[in-house]
């Protein structure tokens, strides 16, 4: 009954490689997010999609490209991985509209770039 | 979004109440006050939110100062499972965009 799931949970790769992280939510939400939590534990928003449309795009290198094939999925593709990309990446989802809707977070994907 | 200030860490004993403070002196009239927490090795989870009035839910209570420049998250009976980083967040939207600060690391002693 996982609400927001991410794969893989751990990802270890070499500098320069290209990798993808997948996120799926079964909550029927129409808005999804990617956050990055670095080694200092700061959690920063990267992207947000609402109904497959990009609505938040923070200052993130263009090596990072989110893709939302449908409302239930938001994948993150990273090209030419760098050491500084090592972090935990969290996906989240939320229902848009209404008075208030909290965000539901996935368990995270720990990316280690060697 | 306006900035919040929280203590870096706090300690509590199991089964005692915990009051986690948050200062937000530059809060605007339309800012919601959100609280999320992050248990070890997990993603953040929603705790509670408020706008002007005090709020209660099954997890916690939120006490908001009359001038809205500060708020306090209250855990009525701390358990070991409540050990987490607690984030106080202001957002002019109703939860669509969250800017996390450093939070307060809560340690609960048995």
| Strand fraction of chain A | over 45%
In quaternary terms, these chains amount to heterodimer
Radius of gyration of chain A: 13 Å
Rg of chain B (C-alpha, Å):
13 Å
Distance between the termini of chain B: 37 Å
| Global structural class of chain B | mainly beta
Instruction: Give the count of helical stretches of chain B.
Output: 0
Q: Give the neighbour order of strands across the main sheet of chain B.
A: 1-9-8-3-4
Q: Low-confidence segments of chain B, ≥5 residues, pLDDT <50?
A: none
Task: Record the SSE blueprint.
The complex is a heterodimer of chains A (114) and B (110).
Chain A: E1 4-7, E2 10-13, E3 19-25, E4 31-37, E5 43-50, E6 53-57, E7 64-70, E8 73-78, E9 87-94, E10 104-105, E11 109-113
Parallel strand pairs in A: 2-11
Antiparallel strand pairs in A: 1-3, 3-8, 4-5, 4-9, 5-6, 7-8, 9-10, 9-11
Chain B: E1 9-13, E2 18-23, E3 32-38, E4 45-50, E5 55-56, E6 61-64, E7 70-75, E8 84-91, E9 104-109
Parallel strand pairs in B: 1-9
Antiparallel strand pairs in B: 2-7, 3-4, 3-8, 5-6, 6-7, 8-9
